[in-house]
């Protein structure tokens, strides 16, 4: 019997073959699906009527890395404000495409405020909120016709909190006649998927190209989301928008979103994502963009900002120096990225290590592009710095943080600045 070990194959997210949508504004084209990178999007929480305030928040979200930004369009006043928001963004040099989030009266707003329909780059339609009875097909059709008229893609977004009750009731009646009825949750899953796919087929029948249709079926439970999206991905080739709706606040929302999205993205499911995080009091709206970006970067799907490997701390690290330095370096790298993306191509893939003692410090620092191993409790007051795997210099004294930051800046300029001029 051969007991020789076999190589352990590294894992990576699989790729799902989907249609590719194009979301445009001016010269900016954001591709979604069809082999494009998984896109990050977010949504404003300002009153859309406040055009200046909304434009400022959209700018902040875009600079944080949001490639698409959705905003509420719920009243004639909000619809009238959209062109002015777009104008303000264009003046600031922010070309991020805008998505209009429509419910109940979207058919009227897109028809009666054509400047809004034109200024948006994509429409979100919830088939559970477009009307009831005979009005449903007509009002849904009006929204799709607006998308065709202005050459805009559409996300058909089903949400279990606003699922088409007539469809669900009909499927429940059908289920009751089965020899072995499904449980209620399985029927609800099926209703979500049926609503999305049937609405997409209806949009195609009206004339909207299939590649310009994206689907989502949002729920708020991690296992529910995984179940629904795995089935949805098997039944269609539309690009899929992925997100856990009403994920929650702080740690709860972050962990739930990371767990659900991480599993599905590893399966190759999801072409654009949003982390629906409830902001904690005083927390910036951009936090949901940071988390979405970190999920993709942790899976190796995208690189947005240099990664910082840091020591968690233990009894060997009673000093808080490594914590303070880690935060300073991480904040510095994120703040500089809007400029560095153009100036230093490839810098987003750089790895920095900030370690707190001699146990793992030198090893982790050698694995990074640039790393520092700070002294732990009782260790000599010296901090060796490693660059490209080799010990470069040892820092001492009261200015270690400033000296290391200067070394990081110098490294970036030397390595990535040269690439930009090559």
From TrEMBL:
UniProt cross-references to InterPro entries, sorted A to Z: Dihydropteroate_synth-like_sf (IPR011005), IspG_bac (IPR016425), IspG_bac-typ (IPR004588), IspG_C (IPR058579), IspG_TIM (IPR058578), NO2/SO3_Rdtase_4Fe4S_sf (IPR045854)
Q: Identify the cofactor(s).
A: [4Fe-4S] cluster
One protein family per Pfam: GcpE_C
**Primary role:** Converts 2C-methyl-D-erythritol 2,4-cyclodiphosphate (ME-2,4cPP) into 1-hydroxy-2-methyl-2-(E)-butenyl 4-diphosphate.
Is Repeat given among the entry's keywords?
A: no
Catalytic activity reads: (2E)-4-hydroxy-3-methylbut-2-enyl diphosphate + oxidized [flavodoxin] + H2O + 2 H(+) = 2-C-methyl-D-erythritol 2,4-cyclic diphosphate + reduced [flavodoxin]
Task: Please give the name of this protein.
Answer: 4-hydroxy-3-methylbut-2-en-1-yl diphosphate synthase (flavodoxin)
Which NCBIfam families did the record assign?
ispG_gcpE (TIGR00612), PRK00366.1 (NF001540)
Give the family, as the similarity comment puts it: Belongs to the IspG family.
Q: Where is the IspG TIM-barrel domain?
A: 30-291
GO BP, sorted A to Z: isopentenyl diphosphate biosynthetic process, methylerythritol 4-phosphate pathway; terpenoid biosynthetic process
Keywords of this protein's UniProt record, alphabetized? 4Fe-4S, Iron, Iron-sulfur, Isoprene biosynthesis, Metal-binding, Oxidoreductase
Its Enzyme Commission number(s) read: 1.17.7.3
**Molecular function in Gene Ontology:** 4 iron, 4 sulfur cluster binding; 4-hydroxy-3-methylbut-2-en-1-yl diphosphate synthase activity (ferredoxin); 4-hydroxy-3-methylbut-2-enyl-diphosphate synthase activity (flavodoxin); iron ion binding
Q: Where is the signal peptide?
A: none
Tell me how the cofactor is bound.
Binds 1 [4Fe-4S] cluster.
Q: Where is the IspG C-terminal domain?
A: 308-409
Q: Which major enzyme category is it? A: oxidoreductase
């Amino acid at each position: 019997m051969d007991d020789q070990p076999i190589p352990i194959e590294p894992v990576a997210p699989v790729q799902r073959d989907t249609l590719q949508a194009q979301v445009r504004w001016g010269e900016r084209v954001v591709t979604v699906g069809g082999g494009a990178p998984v896109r990050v999007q977010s949504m404003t929480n300002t009153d859309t009527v406040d055009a200046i305030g909304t434009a400022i928040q959209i700018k902040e979200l875009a600079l944080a890395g949001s490639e698409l930004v959705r905003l509420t369009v719920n009243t004639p006043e909000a619809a009238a404000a959209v062109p002015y928001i777009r104008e303000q963004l264009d003046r600031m040099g922010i070309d991020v495409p805008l998505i209009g989030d429509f419910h109940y009266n979207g058919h009227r707003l897109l028809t009666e405020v054509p400047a809004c329909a034109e200024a948006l780059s994509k429409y979100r339609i919830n088939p559970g909120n477009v009307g009831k009875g005979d009005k449903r097909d007509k009002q849904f059709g009006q929204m799709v016709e607006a998308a065709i008229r202005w050459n805009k893609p559409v996300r058909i977004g089903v949400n279990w909190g606003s699922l088409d009750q007539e469809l669900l009731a009909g499927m429940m009646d059908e289920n009751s006649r089965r020899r072995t009825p499904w449980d209620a949750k399985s029927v609800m899953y099926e209703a979500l998927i049926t609503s999305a796919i049937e609405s997409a087929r209806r949009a195609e029948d009206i004339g909207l190209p299939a590649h310009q249709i994206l689907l989502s079926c949002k729920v708020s439970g991690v296992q529910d989301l995984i179940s629904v999206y795995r089935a949805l991905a098997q039944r269609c080739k539309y690009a899929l928008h992925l997100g856990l709706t009403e994920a929650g606040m702080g740690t709860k929302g972050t962990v739930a979103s990371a767990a659900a999205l991480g599993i599905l993205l590893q399966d190759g499911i999801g072409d654009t994502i949003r982390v629906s995080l409830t902001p904690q009091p005083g927390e910036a709206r951009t936090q949901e963009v940071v988390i979405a970006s970190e999920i993709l970067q942790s899976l190796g799907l995208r690189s947005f900002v240099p990664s910082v490997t840091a020591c968690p701390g233990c009894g060997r690290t009673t000093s808080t120096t490594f914590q303070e330095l880690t935060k300073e370096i991480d904040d510095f790298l994120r703040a500089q990225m809007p400029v560095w993306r153009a100036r230093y191509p490839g810098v987003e893939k750089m790895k920095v290590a900030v370690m707190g003692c001699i146990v793992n410090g030198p090893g982790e620092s050698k694995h990074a592009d640039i790393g520092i191993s700070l002294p732990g409790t009782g260790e000599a007051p010296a901090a060796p710095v490693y660059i490209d795997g080799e010990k470069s210099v040892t820092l001492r004294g009261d200015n270690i943080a400033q000296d290391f930051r200067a070394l990081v800046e110098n490294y970036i300029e030397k390595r990535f600045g040269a690439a930009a001029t090559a």
